[in-house]
Amino acid sequence: MKLTIVYDNDVYKKDIGLKSDWGFSCLIETRDEIILFDTGAKGRILLNNMQKLDIDPSIINKIVISHEHWDHNGGLKALAHLISGAELYRLGEESPSENMHLITVKGPHAITKGILTTGRLKGSPVDEQSLVLEGKNGWYVLAGCSHPGVEQILGASRQFGNIVGLIGGLHGFNDFSILEDLEVVCPAHCTKHKKKIYELFPKTSVECGVGKIIEI
Ligand SMILES: [Zn+2]
Ligand SMILES: [Zn+2]
Questions:
Q1: For residue 90, what are the CA distances in angstroms to 38, 61, 82?
Q2: Which numbered ligand comes closest to the C-alpha of 39?
């Protein structure tokens, strides 16, 4: 499974015209499906980054929105013009277009083979869902902002298998010891203590940013 960061507060792959902005989006490519997790804040920046990374938005067949904050669902409208017939998995009950087939997520369930949602987890100020992805050597959690808290998200994800990686926005998270057993930590987007995580876990932490590719 291949993950490409297409929207983030930082740019990873410099000098090819990628733009950073407050928000998060990650493309997930499996053998059978192209799934977009979150859409960033601005459609213009999302589409610019996709174009520069040679990603054709019309090939996306599923979209998952982690939670209903503008920096995660803001790019949806721009995508709705370009994507036809995609399934949209979100906690909200609104579809940006008749073209998209809305699935309102409640409990945990499979999105496709090897990709599951934790289902709606209670969070402050908003509820959120995270994805749990089956990699070659274990399961990875992909999170938007981690409003429910990293501990709760990891706990809910462990029902699916052994969690070896965590990728995404971790917000104000600072209970660092719970990352000790992970093999990969990629703090993205709103993570307040990125530097501290790099310092504490030099062998397992991975720098994020637009253009970063992670094969799992
Ligand atoms: Zn966010
Ligand atoms: Zn948020």
A1: 10, 14, 19
A2: 1
- Of the chain, the end-to-end C-alpha distance in Å amounts to 5
Residues, CB within 5 angstroms of ligand 1 (ion): 71, 145, 190
The kind and range of the H/E element at 213 are strand 213-215
CB 37 within 8 A of CB 6: no
H-helix or E-strand spanning residue 188: strand 184-188
pLDDT tens digits, residue range 76-85? Answer: 999 998 998 9
Ligand nearest to the CA of 68: 2
> pTM of the entire structure?
0.97
Pairing of strands 213-215, 184-188: unpaired
Total Cβ atoms within 10 A of residue 131: 25
